[in-house]
Amino acid sequence: MKFKFIFSLLALGIWALPAQGQSLVSPNGNLEMNFQVSDNGIPTYELSYKNRQVIKPSHLGLELKREDENKKIGFKRRERDDKEQLDIMTDLVSGFEVVGTDVTTLDETWEPVWGEERKIRNHYNEMLVSLRQPATQRRLNIRFRMFNDGLGFRYEFPQQPGLNYFVIKEERTQFAMTGDHKAFWIPGDYDTQEYDYTTSRLSEIRGKMKDAITDNASQFVFSPTGVQTALLMKSDEGLYITLHEAALVEYPCMHLNLDDRNLVFESWLTPDVNGDKGYMQTPCQTPWRTIMVSDDARELLASRMTLNLNEPCAYSDTSWIKPVKYIGVWWDMITGKGSWAYTDELPSVKLGETDYTRTRPNGRHSANTQNVKYYIDFAARHGFDAVLVEGWNQGWEDWVGHSKDHVFDFVTPYPDFDIREVNRHAHDKGVKIIMHHETSSSVRNYERHLDTAYRFMVANGYNAVKSGYVGDIIPRGEYHYGQWMVNHYLYAVKKAADYKIMVNAHEAVRPTGLCRTYPNLIGNESARGTEYESFGGSKVNHTTILPFTRLVGGPMDYTPGIFELDCSKMNPSNHSRVRSTLARQLALYVTMYSPLQMAADIPQNYERFMDAFQFIKDVAQDWEESRYLEAEPGEYLTIARRAKGTNDWYVGCTAGYEGHLSHLALDFLTPGKRYKATIYADAEGTAWDKNPQSYTITSREVTHKSRLKLTAGIGGGYAISIREIK
């Protein structure tokens, strides 16, 4: 009875509970959060789902850096009035009292510029708790938003005399687990997310950490029990729980550090070169900390909570932002068949001084005029929007691993790349060129050249760029996910918008839904993508996990579509195998959502399988609606999506180590309509390591009453094109 009373008050925006304890429930009543301040003034919350505890009582707060800690050694401390304290109080974790609450509710629908559906419902109940620390008269607000699929909360710092500029020493947000859950995790790292997922109990993370850490061009693992978000867990009772963050702006990226004795996660912010966690000026706020919960894994895939916790679109005109389907010379170089570099004769390069006309070409440079024109012709012939060209600009002989500042200028081509001729040919064929800005993590250099590089793109009619941040960051000592770099990534996106340019950022901080506010952030890598299939391979079930973890924050430029699954066929010295069947490569265009989709293989390989290639040509990048048909993290998932503005559907299934048998009901189709279903499936007995290029293509007429029985092999999958018969 009390539960129903609380819900009705929330619906009316009314609150009348004692100050020592407040409750907030989801619009559908399934989730309940209880907040209170403990006897010693520690803000504490707990969360339950359908009367089952999800988060045990957990502390909230932040520890600030003391004023004297900010002083440099050797500087004389200024004189102070006797009444002034030598050290300002730094504890924002205890000694609080509640001085007020404000409860509201919102139910709206908004339309993304691009997305997994045309319209998104944003429905939540909100509670703002105002806290005061009597010993210092400081104020701290905590804002909670409860959705049907989870809870978001953040710290807010009002403008106040006792707290203006301050430095965060550590955020002390806790997530106390109710049991030793099964977890899908990657090592906590300040510089990379490009790890395979490890599946284990929480208590096993410490013992499995060493094997989970694999080499990367830049990495810093901070703890034997530290993991990254989005972290997915499954309880023994069948609850799926995801911890992440939303709206990461002007703040360092959050990791989670596990107290594996008590099974309590605590936030762990990425530091700067001095070890500080964040420089703040009131009024300000942190990103949202998010907890998604369901007893149905499909509901996690359908959640839009991360997007809903971000601000609306910042641009009045978005007509220049368009989904893109593209090809490129990238896989040629990733496999080692081709080269980014023009010559092998230069041990070092100095921009503006090195004369490439005096060097001998290595004969493997992929971004040459003739080859790129071939890709443009292929793109035009098969209806692709664009061609990504990497390695066209000078400097690739000497770019990473040397902490080099002046590494690229982003506008000067190699001698074998006639940029005017390539540009003319692309325009004649109606194909865009996607520019490439590899920064080699010399961020100071990139910002030095950014306006010039964007103006160069505009002058040549290029409206999309793939940026990269391989290697250790310059300024030296900064990390990829620290506050300084978080600010840079957004600066580059906002600057690109001034020139009406879309950005696909690789090696950047993981997405947290900012694509709602800045939809020209049309793609991100920020996870272990297809390139690793050429570097020894990813785990067979990798693509059955990523939609539950990495994609919680936004789309991924996963670069699927590899048809030649034996890398030695590209480069005899590369013995890697793509751990996928060809049919699953098609499915990924549906299951790995992105408005930016690459057909990543080389044209010659597609020409061997043109019947299968038809699905890549047909599949949409922008969707009217999405249905999540079946899902179990690490094992399988099947998704159906309707192309925007049409009645045509596309279905994709990806399976892990056990394969998967689907019994699909096509009841999402419009009653009374007839459709032609074209099914691209693994042939009988096919697996990633056994005849992976064997597939079948069958067609049949279907309606909303139809049922399909389909099998995905080990590391396999299937894709279906369902086109309305008119």
Summarize the structure.
The protein is of the alpha+beta class. The strands form six sheets. Strands 7, 8, 9, 10, 13, 14, 16, 17, 21 and 22 form a ten-stranded antiparallel β-sheet that branches.
Commentary on this structure:
This protein is an alpha+beta fold and 726 residues long. Helices cover 16% and strands 31% of the residues. The protein is built from twelve helices and 37 strands. Strands 7, 8, 9, 10, 13, 14, 16, 17, 21 and 22 form a ten-stranded antiparallel beta sheet that branches. It has an eight-stranded antiparallel beta sheet with strand order 1-2-3-4-12-19-18-15. Helix 6 runs parallel beside helix 7 (419-429) and helix 8 (443-460) packs parallel to helix 9. The protein is globular and about 75 Å long. 51% of the residues are buried. Mean pLDDT is 94; it is low at 1-19 and 73-88.
Topology:
Elements: H1 2-11, E1 21-25, E2 31-37, E3 43-49, E4 52-59, E5 62-64, E6 91-92, E7 97-110, E8 120-133, E9 138-147, E10 150-157, E11 165-171, E12 174-177, E13 182-185, E14 198-201, H2 205-212, E15 226-228, E16 231-234, E17 240-246, E18 254-259, E19 264-269, E20 278-281, E21 284-285, E22 288-294, H3 297-302, H4 305-308, E23 324-328, H5 330-334, H6 369-381, E24 386-388, H7 419-429, E25 432-438, H8 443-460, E26 464-468, H9 483-498, E27 502-505, E28 521-524, H10 582-591, E29 596-598, H11 603-606, H12 610-618, E30 623-632, E31 636-643, E32 649-655, E33 660-665, E34 675-682, E35 695-702, E36 707-712, E37 717-724
Parallel strand pairs: 23-24, 23-29, 24-25, 25-26, 26-27, 27-28
Antiparallel strand pairs: 1-2, 2-3, 3-4, 4-12, 5-6, 5-11, 7-8, 8-9, 9-10, 10-21, 10-22, 11-20, 12-19, 13-14, 13-16, 15-18, 16-17, 17-22, 18-19, 30-31, 31-32, 32-37, 33-36, 34-35, 34-37
Helix pairs in contact: 6-7, 8-9
